[in-house]
Write a structure and sequence with these properties.
166 residues; alpha/beta; Rossmann fold; seven-stranded mixed β-sheet; 4 helices; binds adenosine-5'-diphosphate; binds magnesium ion
Amino acid sequence: MNHNNMLEDVADFTVKTRSADETLEFGRRLGALLRPQDIIALVGDLGAGKTWLAKGIAFGLEVPGHEYVNSPAFDLVHEYQGRLPVYHMDFYRLDQLSNEDYLWIEEYLDRQGVCVIEWADKFIDQLTKDYLKVELRETYNEDEREIRITDIGGRYKRVIEGLKQQ
Ligand code: ADP
Ligand code: MG
C-alpha cells in the first residue's frame, strides 16, 4: 500500500501537554480508544516523551500500574495484559532492522493486542498496515510537548474523532 497517495483525506489531531503527567493522561485517553491489532507508531527525539506516552496508553488499556516496567530498551518488547494485550516495543537500540527483526515484529502485529512502538520511524517505511502515527516534539517552553497524531491509511478515523470529542 502506498500511503503517500492518501494525503487528501488525512485525519489528524494535535495537542500540547505541559508536563509529563499531562502526557501520561493524554496517553490514557488514547489507550481507552484502542482496539485489537491497532498499531501506535511513536516518533520523536530522545526525551520527547515517547515512553511517558506509551505508559499512559498502557494504563488506558487497563494495564495495572504495578506491572508496568519502563522502557523495553534492552528486551525490545515488553508484553502486558490489560483489557487487551499490550506489546510495548522500543527500537532505540536497533540501528538497522534485519530480516529476522521484521519477522518477529510482524508476528506481534498479527496478534490480537495493541502494538505501541517507540522509534517506529526506523521501520515505518516497511509497514504495509495502517497505523496511527504519533509525533512528539519539544517546544520552546520548558516541559511543553507538541503531540501530533495522524491516521495513516484510514483505520484510525474513529480514534481521531474520539480524541476530538473529549
Ligand atoms: P523518550 O521515550 O521520547 O526518549 P521519555 O518519555 O523517556 O522520552 O522522557 C521524557 C522526559 O521529558 C522525562 O524526563 C519527562 O519527565 C520530561 N518531560 C517534561 N515535560 C514533558 C511532557 N510535557 N511530556 C512528556 N515528558 C516530559
Ligand atoms: Mg523512550
